[in-house]
Amino acid sequence: MAIPTFGLTCRSRFPLRPSLFYCLNKTPRIVSVVEALDEPERLLKENSAHDSYERVHVSDQKAPEWKKWSSKDLGISTSKISRPTRVVLNGLRKKGYDVYLVGGCVRDLILKRTPKDFDIITSAELKQVMRTFSQCEIVGKRFPICHVHIDDTIVEVSSFSTSRRKLNSNLSYDFSRTSRHHDKDYILWRNCLQRDFTINGLMFDPYAHMVYDYIGGIEDIRKAKVRTLISASRSFHDDCARILRAVRVAARLGFRFTKETARSVKDLSCTVLRLDKGRLLMELNYMLAFGSAEPSLRLLWKFGLLEVLLPIQAAYFVSCGFRRRDKRTNMLLSLFSSLDKLLAPDRPCHASLWVAILAFHKALLDQPRDPLVVAMFSLAVHNGGNLSEAVKIARNITKPHNASFHELLEPQDMDSEALTDEVTDLAASVKSALSKMTDEYFVSQAMAAYPQAPYSDLVFIPLALYLRVCKIFDCVRENKEKGFVSKEGSKIDYQKLALGALEEVRHVFARVVFDTIYLLKS
């Protein structure tokens, strides 16, 4: 086992290729074609002839037209704004400061989705924000913001005065200020230019009931497109994390990339290896823990990122004969689809759960099992390792298993002792699979049979997370964990799940596995 994040890597005696250099200079790929995502149904009614907006100014023919939209006409409901966010908005407003919601939360409100979080920008200086709230701190040195603590929630507040430092003056189109520009519009416009994608470049004044769109964000929401604010190639060169954010946004919303964005995501996929491992873990967690894991994995595969971030899982896709545009499913995608049904942007899981699912699937891939063994294993995880109880419940299962998964064997007639031995062996296999996922050499060899694939030995699972995942399954090998109290009822406590409470993570893991293995009646 190797945990490179903590300096515990066991280096192989075999020479390894330099990962990033090799990846950037290797032009052939397993599948070289890049296709645009399928066009979803229109999310907003086209009504361009009667749109209720106020024209502000067009500075250049290449630049989007400045528009102001009525939030009522866009169908925004302020009831979706969280209570802690309202407290901060009202507190600053009462002090006489301008306040706006910015970024992805405005996009989600327009799409009538529940935002993952809310970002606020204000005309107040950060020190003035601190004086407004008793529990507030300034974080960050280069681009500081305020963290306002309301109940158990942190609301991020930035200031127009500090956000000006982030503006890149060398833009893809020119702006020459004239007397026709109001100072307020100029300030808002400058801030919008700092955003990564046009659909994230909207500002919402909940008191004036007005949405400000200076970069064509509404139009791209209508077209269900993810478009970078400047040229995609340059945007991703400037910040390669935007590649992963693009995938996350497209997967979550069901949007497609523009042709330029899609091409740049594919061509620059290997540059994400420049990010530190903590950042990569955070970005993967955003993809897999917030209810859009299955479409995220599809997009990672489609645009050549899966073999960079998760080579073991990429090798599985290749072994299944998956092509980049494949619409079929497999067991790994089905597991995460079952997980997605239980989660949402405001109801995420802890990272230990999706890592556990990856390790569990790898164990079944290495050694397929009887579906009854898999069912008994999930039940044993749920009840803290009580194998005798798991055997009794599993033998009463009458639902047919999903026979399309080659990770499952044909059902066999086994006695209770044989079943128990198989379940214990599966628990050991899962731990072995987890160790492989944290071994740089093993990860580097996952795609070795496919010389056209980019090289990656990326291991991003830190020691603390590794140990936490091991704890999920240790009870099965120990046969009934001492002092463990099994979760009562089927209702998920999402606060505990997000924090990684063991009984909650085990409960959801068992549900995901069971719902995937056994076909539910429609």
Beta-strand share of residues: 5-15%
SS content category: alpha+beta
**Radius of gyration over all CA atoms, rounded:** 25 Å
Helix content: 40-55%
How many DSSP-defined strands? 11
Determine the mean pLDDT.
Answer: 84
Instruction: State the end-to-end CA separation.
Output: 43 Å
Quaternary arrangement of the chains shown?
single chain
Q: Count of helical segments?
A: 23
Biggest beta sheet attributes: 9 strands, mixed
Q: What characteristic shape results from the CA principal axes? A: globular
**Low-pLDDT segments:** 1-61, 168-179
Q: What order do the strands of the largest sheet run in, or round the barrel if closed?
A: 1-2-9-8-3-4-7-6-5
Molecular structure report:
The protein has 23 helices and 11 strands. The chain has a 9-stranded mixed beta sheet, with helices on both faces. The protein starts with 18 loop residues before the first helix and ends in a 5-residue tail after the last helix. The model is unreliable at 1-61 and 168-179 (pLDDT under 50). It is globular, with a radius of gyration of 25 Å. The longest helix has 22 residues, at 416-437. Helices cover 44% and strands 8% of the residues. Helix 9 (241-253) runs parallel beside helix 11, helix 16 (351-366) crosses helix 23 and helix 19 (416-437) packs antiparallel against helix 21 (463-478). It is of the alpha+beta class. The protein has helices at 19-24, 83-94, 104-110, 126-132, 160-163, 183-192, 217-222, 232-238, 241-253, 259-267, 277-288, 293-302, 306-309, 311-319, 331-340, 351-366, 371-382, 387-394, 416-437, 440-445, 463-478, 494-499, 502-517; strands spanning 53-55, 67-70, 99-102, 119-122, 136-139, 145-150, 153-159, 202-205, 210-213, 225-226, 256-257.
